[in-house]
Specification:
The chain is of the alpha+beta class and 209 residues long. Helix content is 19%, strand content 28%. The chain is built from 3 helices and 12 strands. The chain is elongated.
């Protein structure tokens, strides 16, 4: 219905608009207004996002990947002190795969399980290991280990020993400066955390394994 402003018998429209009702305004005062509710909803949404990110990060660190730093020289020349690594923990989940001879791995120290070490898997369960004048033999076959430099090979003798079921024999590439299975024996599978996947620092020496 329209109103004709020229009809004297009919009321004229108001010159000023009526004030908006409180429920029609985004700026309504009071803790229960739409603005407060919207802020609360946004806060809850952000909290859910952050909580989800925290859960995903925890799952990634627990079951996926972990960043680690090398401390020491036991894996030289392959790895150097203070190198930064990415550890692939997913690779050794039960339904994915098992450590393989030649893998560079991170494991809990058998002497102190609160500490983590980086070593190379040199033999698996059931295999026989011995060393003669610094040369490693597995099942009486000489191991091709070009990652060990002549200066780091050493001249010690060891074994022979057979690796127990569910255990692995690990060594550092710097044979003269490594505490490994030669001193504390083979390590249980459950102590192996994951495979060294990437050295990402220093950038000039970045590589995959």
């Amino acid at each position: 219905m329209t109103v004709n402003p020229t009809d004297p018998e009919k009321p004229q429209p108001c010159a000023e608009p009526l004030p908006a009702r409180a429920e029609d305004s985004d700026a309504a005062p009071g803790p229960g207004g739409p603005l407060s509710r919207r802020l609360a909803e946004e806060f809850v949404a952000w909290f859910k996002t952050l909580a989800s990110a925290g859960v995903y990060a925890t799952l990634i660190v627990t079951f996926g990947f972990q960043v680690a730093r090398v401390e020491g020289h036991s894996m030289a020349p392959t790895l150097q002190d203070q190198d930064r690594l990415v550890i692939n923990k997913f690779a050794y989940l039960t339904f994915v795969g098992e450590p393989k001879v030649g893998d560079v791995v991170m494991l809990y120290s058998p002497n102190d399980p609160t500490k983590a070490l980086v070593k190379r898997v040199m033999a698996a369960e059931g295999q026989w290991v011995r060393m003669v004048n610094g040369r490693l033999f597995v099942d009486d076959e000489p191991v091709n280990d070009p990652f060990v430099s002549d200066a780091y090979r050493g001249h010690d003798d060891y074994g022979p020993v057979q690796i127990r079921e569910g255990f692995y024999f690990v060594m550092g590439d710097h044979r003269n400066a490594s505490s490994d299975s030669r001193s504390w024996g083979d390590v249980p599978r459950k102590y192996i955390i994951g495979r060294v996947q990437v050295r990402w620092w220093p950038l000039a020496d970045a590589r995959t394994f």
